[in-house]
Amino acid sequence: MDKFIIHGGRKLNGTVAISGAKNATLALMPAALLASGTFKLGNTPRLRDVTTMSSLLKSMGMKIDFTNNLLTLDTRGVNKHEAPYEHVKKMRASIYVLGPLIARYGRAKVSLPGGCAWGPRPVNLHIDGIKKLGANVELEHGYIVAHAEKLTGARIHFDISSVGATGNVMMAAVLARGTTLITNAAIEPEITALAEFLVKMGAKIDGIGTNRLEIEGVSDLHPSDCETIPDRIEAGTFLVAAAMTGGSITLTNVNPNHFSAVTAKLEDAGCKTEILDSGFWFQAPTELKPVDATAVIYPGFPTDMQAQWIALMSIATGTSIVTDTIYTDRFKHVPELERLGADIELKKNAAVVRGVKSLTGAKVMSTDLRASASLILAGLVAEGETEVLRVYHLDRGYEAIEKKLKALGADIERVAGEEF
Ligand code: EPZ
Fold first, then answer.
1. Distance from C-alpha of 303 to C-alpha of 309, rounded to nearest angstrom
2. 116 is known as an active-site residue
3. Which of 121, 166, 182 to mutate to test the pocket of ligand 1 (most atoms within 8 A of CB)?
4. How far is the CA of 90 from the centre of ligand 1 (A)?
5. Do 45 and 17 form a contact (C-beta atoms < 8 A)?
6. Rounded distance between C-alpha atoms, residue 405 and residue 380, angstroms
7. Domain span at residue 296?
8. Domains held by the chain: number
9. 39-55: pLDDT as tens digits
10. Is 236 found in the same domain as 222?
11. pLDDT at 108 over 70
12. Ligand 1 centroid to 8 CA: how many Å?
């Protein structure tokens, strides 16, 4: 398992190109199961999660080529309709194959995802949704086993506007007989990108970008191509890195509309930003003001930026409160940040962060993707040397992060190796 060695204290300056969005790609790839032929997904990020999804889809008979961020999917050979535990336990997003399989093939056997690093991740909304569309669903030996002659359109209201359940149910509904109305649907940009891709494939979806989606089922769909939207969480992560190190950077290949909540918080903390034709310009302040943040559904402050925000606030000039209303137990990064000298008190689903003058380097352990990101960010400013272990967590969701950080001036090295 690789680790990163970071020597803190360097300001980040320069330009960085943001990669395609992991959470869009992980929905677009299974959507290809809905039609037979060849799909080309441009600007696809080279990530472990993309490799995991590829190996799952290949195990179903899909042919996949991935060259220079162009992902080519050939679905003509798909002949298996199962997502085994080995894949799903590695990546919860594997459940995205459920909707397309049941819609196109009338059957699916998908392992329940179980928990993740920070706690239970239920899929009841996914299952209830396809049941409402007429699928017969049994839970057997840890698997979701679903059958349906033909799905039928239905009215589906989500108690929680789940990103994954919205994506899965939308992919099931596009081939159902009749009309489906989804209310309280997720409106994250990745779901909008999925809906737009389905429409390019011939689906009939109204209300795209809103929390009310009306889907008119069609008899079949055709392959299509698309350019993956930029990763708004990678963009936010690099902005926080520049904010912490007191630097000034320009992001290219970004859509600033997708991270306006993060931009607003950074400006409250004293940062300067400007949308340029060539990208998004950012400058850190000399002093970081403490700013509270509460993670809510889009377009609010994203839960996937909560850990990074705590890292930033750990060196602000005062106390702030960072709350997560999406995942109330997503705080595995806090004890690791405390090892670096942060002063944080957890109170249920909120972290009270008392800014300290400086952090000091230490050996810390990655536990999940965004927690690992927060440890890298802290290491960039901690005095001395920080070792971040088990960086495979980071490789799940950040393409070549150490190369991008090094190009901006960071002192960071990847050390390949065994169990650290
Ligand atoms: C997606 O996960 C993202 N992953 C997550 O990003 C992100 O944190 C999350 O949305 C919230 O924005 C992908 O897109 C692959 P949810 P998802 O269903 O779809 C509850 C990252 O770091 N819920 O919107 O799994 C759930 O427990 C990852 O890139 C149910 O109760 O999230 C949570 O409290 C981490 N029942 C809330 O809804 C369900 O059936 C939101 O979850 C489904 C969800």
1. 10
2. yes
3. 121
4. 15
5. no
6. 9
7. 2-19+230-416
8. 2
9. 999 999 999 999 999 99
10. no
11. yes
12. 33
